[in-house]
Amino acid sequence: MKTKTEFVDITPHRSIMLKLGQSGYSISEALAELIDNSIDASIPDKKLSIDISVSSNKIVISDNGSGMPKDVASKVLKLGFSTKEKEAKLGKFGLGLKTSCLSLGKSFVIKTSPLNSGEEFTVSFDEDEWINSGDWSRHPMSISEGIPKNVSYSRITINNIIVKFDNKELEKLADEFGLRFGPFIESDSVEILINKKFCKPALPKLTSHGKKDFEIKLSTGWVLKGWFGFKLAGSVKEYYGFNTFRRGRLITTYDKIGLSKDPKAKQIVGEIYMDHVPVSHNKRNWIIQSEEYKIVSNELTKFLRDYDVRQKKIVSGFPAHPGRVEGIARVLFLGARTNAKDLERIKPGDILVTSMTRPQYLLQIRRAGAIVTDMGGMLCHAAIVSREFNIPCIVGTQNGMQKIKDGQKIIVDANEGVVYEAE
Hints:
Largest sheet: 8 strands, mixed
CATH topology of the largest domain: Heat Shock Protein 90
Number of domains: 3
Helix content: 10-25%
Radius of gyration: 26 Å
CATH superfamily of the largest domain: Histidine kinase-like ATPase, C-terminal domain
Strand order of the largest sheet: 5-4-3-6-2-1-7-8
Strand content: 25-35%
CATH class of the largest domain: Alpha Beta
Number of helices: 12
Shape: globular
C-alpha cells in the first residue's frame, strides 16, 4: 500500500468570529471582562478611571490606563493572541475582548493611545462587513498623529447592541461591580462609573464572629499579619479569599493563597499584608515562584487548618432559593390557629422555621431573612414565594421545627441546603 502526505488549508472560516458572541456571556460578565482588561492596563501610582456609558444603541467603555502599543493594537483582533500569557493577570487567554464585545453588539471600534507615543490606533470590526469580505491577513488599522505624549487611554465603542438595559439592570451592574471590584475601589486605586454614577464598594458581610486578627511568625523571621472572617452572603461563590497588600498597596483581590479545596474555605475572606514578598514589575501580581511566597502560602494553610472551628450542622434540606444569612430563628406553625400575637414575633430579618408556608401569611413571610420548612419540594409555596421575594430558602428538612430552637441564632446556607448553629 502506497501512502503520501498532502497539506491542507485549515484557516478558520470567517464565521468563527461571529460565533464568539454566542459564548453565553451575561451582560455583567461581558462588561466585567472589559473592566479586567482596563485594570490590567493600569499605571502604577496613578488612579485608574473606568467610564462606562450605556445608551439605547451603543455602549462605550473608556479608561485612562497605559493604552496599547502599536504591536499589541495591531493584533487585538487576532484569535488567541494575548500579552498576558506569562503573567497571572485578570485576563490572559486572548479571547475575552472579542467575545465580550460580540456578545453585546454587532460591531465595535477600539481606539487606544499608549503613553509617550503621540499616536492613536483604531481597529474596527463589523459582523456584516467581516462575513462578506473579511481577510485574516489584511485587516485595516488606522493611525492618527497629534495626540499629546503625556496622554494614554483605551476606548471601546460597541454599536448596534443586541442587549437591553433599563434602570434596574444598571443598578444591578453597579452592585455587581461594587462587589467584584470592591477591593480596588475601596483602596482608591480604581474608580468605575456607569452613566456618570460611581460604583460603590460592596465588601462581603461577615458572620457574627466578625474579623479575626492574626500574626504568624515565619521561619524566615518575618511576621505575616492580617485578618480573616467567614462571609455571610454566599450566593456569589467566587468572591472569597484574601485581598493582599504590599506596603499599603493592593496587589491582588480574592486571592486563594493558603486556602484548601474544602468547601469551608469558600466562606473565608480577609486581608494579608505581605511586605517582604516580591511582586512583578507592574506591582499587580506576586512572584508565586519565589521562596517568600511559597513560605507564606504553606504557613497560612497550616494556620487556617489549625484555627478552623467547624460549624455544627442542625438540619439539611433542598436549597429552593440561594443565599446565606444569619439570624434569629422563629419557630412557628402557620395554620388555622395561628393568631396575630404569634405572627408579631417575626421581626424583619428573622429566620422563619415552619412546617410549610401558606398564602394568607405573605406579609409576615416577606419580613423573613430566610425560610426553612419541614415539608415541600422545589415547587411548593415556600419555594415559589422565596424566589419571588428573593429570600434564601431551604425546604423539606423533615424535622427543622423539632431540632431548631425558637430564638436560636442560626446560619441558613441555602446554597448548599444546610442550617448551622451560629454560636
